[in-house]
Amino acid sequence: MMQPFTLRDAAEMTGAAPMASALTYTGVSTDTRTIQPGDLFVALRGEQFDGNAYVQQAIDAGAVAAVVDEIQDGVAAPQLKVEDTLKALGCLALGNRLASPARCVGVTGSSGKTTVKEMLAAILRQEGDTLATRGNLNNHIGVPLTLFCLEPAHRYAIIEMGASGVGEIAYTVNLARPEVAVLTNAGEAHLEGFGSYENIVEAKGEIIDGVASDGVVVLNGDDPACPVWRARAGQRRVLTVSADAAGDADYHYRNVRSENGQTVFDAVGPTGWSQQIRLNLPGKHNLLNALMAIAATRALGARDESIVEGLDELKPVKGRLEKIALQSGVNIVDDSYNANPTSMKAALQHLAEQGGTGAAVLGRMAELGPDAERLHEEIGHLAARLGIAHLLVVGPGTEGYVRGFGAGAQQFASHEAAADWLLAHSTPPMTIMVKGSRSSAMDLVVRALIDKVNN
């Protein structure tokens, strides 16, 4: 649990009326279903709910007090009244962050940030107690909730920061206060909310502003946004990674090969540093992800053995290029967790490198705004150019894939229908790659394939 704070502390942090109470809380919750004894309940408001209505329920579940924007009658527990409970949530999270000695790494980017977060965690856990963002708790509510998990024993904190608009990361990075920031790339994810690619670059770059002047910024030197972010970093130390061994990046890789189901490569860094790295995560883009994790953790002083052992032990995240043996000679690459144009291109490139017959089963890429049709067509065209044998698309909003791919692409109304076609036409050796935005629920295709083979 987090270190104890008094209600007097909470009032000072949030701007609530001064409170003399020395009553302490050891956790913060916004959900009565997860209240633990000793928690402080923060009553958030939303379009469909009003947390103020659940204050008594929170107290009954063990909360010692509540932060509200409307005092609730009949509640026999302290209530701290504030103007904005969401803002108060952030203030409380910042209070716990500032009380923690943990060294923090902030991670953002249009794609790859969750994988890099897991790589960072795998390495730093070899060094000491490490907190890392769970699931996708990476927004203006998720980051505070993550920071409440900081305990006195934690030596490191890895905070993932997502955004769907300009200004969001500026807020969350001020709460996390990272010593090192990692920016994976700027792609066209959430283009609908941002309005333009330039706004995406601007928004992701906000994480740099939250790093102290003596901090470190790790950049993907192969990403077009790198020069913009490098300039924004000012006097901060910048470390770059690249696939180009002949370039001027601080870190690159060489001697890539496959051994016993792992991707093995030599990571090369400044002043002649080099280590052989073994990864259980497929895809060339994950080599760059690993380099970013290496650069960041070395900046924090991580030992070489922690880097090597941590990455060797890391397992694929479910639904992110997860390899599943379906039947003899037929494998699924489950990348159904989410999708945007950048990650979709990387996944198709990985599929094309597998050999045998390749089948891409795609759901729509959400939140792309007016450019959605063009971006889906580009992905379909790329699949054709890479020699993907079969393109199956599922659900509405996928017509652009079909137009881009041309003859042979097929559209299905249901996940099960796509799975039925694949099983009827599977010819070993074959790799089936499944991907789409979360809203397209492409994991249902994976589940249907497995269920139909096993039953």
UniProtKB/TrEMBL annotation:
InterPro entries referenced in this protein's UniProt entry, alphabetically: Mur-like_cat_sf (IPR036565), Mur_ligase_C (IPR004101), Mur_ligase_C_dom_sf (IPR036615), Mur_ligase_cen (IPR013221), Mur_ligase_N (IPR000713), MurCDEF_CellWall_CoF430Synth (IPR051046), MurE/MurF_N (IPR035911), UDP-N-AcMur_synth (IPR005863)
Record-level GO BP terms: cell division; cell wall organization; peptidoglycan biosynthetic process; regulation of cell shape
Enzyme Commission code(s) on record: 6.3.2.10
Keyword Transmembrane helix found: no
One Pfam family cited in the UniProt record for this chain: Mur_ligase
Gene Ontology CC terms, in alphabetical order: cytoplasm
UniProt catalytic activity: D-alanyl-D-alanine + UDP-N-acetyl-alpha-D-muramoyl-L-alanyl-gamma-D-glutamyl-meso-2,6-diaminopimelate + ATP = UDP-N-acetyl-alpha-D-muramoyl-L-alanyl-gamma-D-glutamyl-meso-2,6-diaminopimeloyl-D-alanyl-D-alanine + ADP + phosphate + H(+)
Keywords (A to Z) from UniProt: ATP-binding, Cell cycle, Cell division, Cell shape, Cell wall biogenesis/degradation, Cytoplasm, Ligase, Nucleotide-binding, Peptidoglycan synthesis
Protein location: Cytoplasm
Keyword Transit peptide attributed: no
Positions of the Mur ligase central domain: 107-296
Class of this enzyme: ligase
Domain called Mur ligase C-terminal: residue spans: 319-438
GO terms of molecular function: ATP binding; UDP-N-acetylmuramoyl-tripeptide-D-alanyl-D-alanine ligase activity; UDP-N-acetylmuramoylalanyl-D-glutamyl-2,6-diaminopimelate-D-alanyl-D-alanine ligase activity
Residues bound to ATP: G109, S110, S111, G112, K113, T114, T115
Mur ligase N-terminal catalytic domain location: 25-94
Pathway annotation from the record: Cell wall biogenesis; peptidoglycan biosynthesis
Matches recorded under PANTHER family: UDP-N-ACETYLMURAMOYL-TRIPEPTIDE--D-ALANYL-D-ALANINE LIGASE
Function: Involved in cell wall formation. Catalyzes the final step in the synthesis of UDP-N-acetylmuramoyl-pentapeptide, the precursor of murein.
Record family assignment: Belongs to the MurCDEF family. MurF subfamily.
Descriptive protein name: UDP-N-acetylmuramoyl-tripeptide--D-alanyl-D-alanine ligase
Organism: Marinobacter nanhaiticus D15-8W
Gene symbol of the encoding locus: murF
